[in-house]
Fold this protein.
Amino acid sequence: MSDQQPESHDRFDDEDLAGAFDEFDQIVAEESDRDPDLAVIEAGSRTLRAQAGPPQGDPVPARPVDPEVAAALLEVEQELSTRWGETKLEPSVSRSAALMDVLGEPQRAYPSIHVTGTNGKTSTARMIEALLNAFELRTGRYTSPHVQSITERISLDGAPIEAERFVETYHDIKPYVEMVDAAEEFRLSFFEVLTGMAYAAFADAPVDVAVVEVGMGGSWDATNVIDGSVAVITPISLDHTDRLGSTPGEIAGEKGGIIKQDATVILAQQPVDAAQVLLKKAVEVDATVAREGMEFGVVSREVAVGGQQLTLRGVGGEYEGIFLPLYGAHMAHNAAVALAAVEAFFGIGGQHARVLDVETVRKAFASVTSPGRMEVVRRSPTVILDAAHNPAGAAVTADAVTESFGFSRLIGVVAASADKDVRGVLEAFEPIFAEVVVTENSSHRSMGADELASVAVEVFGADRVQVEPRLDDALEAAITLAEEEAEYGGAGVLVTGSVITVGEARLLLKRG
């Protein structure tokens, strides 16, 4: 991305806007040799008005400054894109197991904490990582999908892997990937290759512990070639029902596949049918279970400036005075789950009846970030990004916004994948959105703006729905709506519906 930084503007007049978006189109044309979607996003990030700029230590990496490294990374991304995407899969771990075999079983070189569930996986994984780092352990974290850069998916010691190392890791395992491709009925998928890269990078580092988030489900997920000594299951709700099942109980059957013999299971609060399935699975494999609300949980929480103040009960005892710089009750529950998982990893509650060092725990939680999850990216008006993409996620986001921000007027910007329960998402947000601007993201899976608008009109009424097919135009329209009627100080914008939407909006609203 260019080093040139745009000037910050509170408002553009019509002439300014016309000039800015002429520039936008010109930059896109100039970068036509780049990935077209990425060119559009990056061009927008240099022209959109009212930029806030990234906070210090932005946890999301920009494109490499070195043109050779940037080109090499793009080449790897293009090669990976020729494989099955993350929504097309043949449910089996056989290909991942075959890749691990020819790589020399790198996933056996370190203990692992395996994380599944429907919502909250990435945030919980990041909190687990922060705690382990605070206790001076080298960590590898594998999460998906990414917000802006593919390198975010593989982290070492709390930071995304360097682009150069990402490229090197790909080329290191590429001959072995091709061997498996030739031997299997189906080529390794995009996600299976990335999983192999992560496990190889962790072994090469080497790390003391890996924190691994499943891609989808659990039992047949590509990540499930590890023996996680701790299995973490965040709240289960309905998502990917075509693949995982039509009830929480059926989905739990798939997600419970990460529970291994003699492991410790950390269970977030679950629907009754899901909890029954998971507890039965734990009994079958002699796993030890810690349940939120029973063995651990949130004792108290208060809204604080920039986040919330917590008292958590772990499996070993209470931890007071914890500041978590993330918003919403769901993030507090994620923190309790993460703390219990790390306690279990250290043997607390089983072999040891004690608590972790409280000051270290406080320091760890105070450092947590979760890009694209209730993330404030600018002020005046406040713009929040949240990757909620199913009704359960949208409901907790709506509650978190209501609790943490005193908006007098909130405008939604929504772009969602066509295969999601879009109506359910919109219905969850309807009580808090004064108006909604529907748009689409660059993914081929994105629901068209007009189709999304037809659903939104049924939920909100025609007078509360605006259609802007381009995301940059949608953001511009939402900011304008938020500033109307002299409510500048109490207005806000929430961008949501998809991780892809949030990632693209993040680039548009932040300087690269």
Notes: The longest helix spans residues 163-183. The first strand starts at residue 112 and ends at 116. Confidence is low (pLDDT under 50) at residues 1-56. Residues 104 and 326 are 40 Å apart (CA to CA).
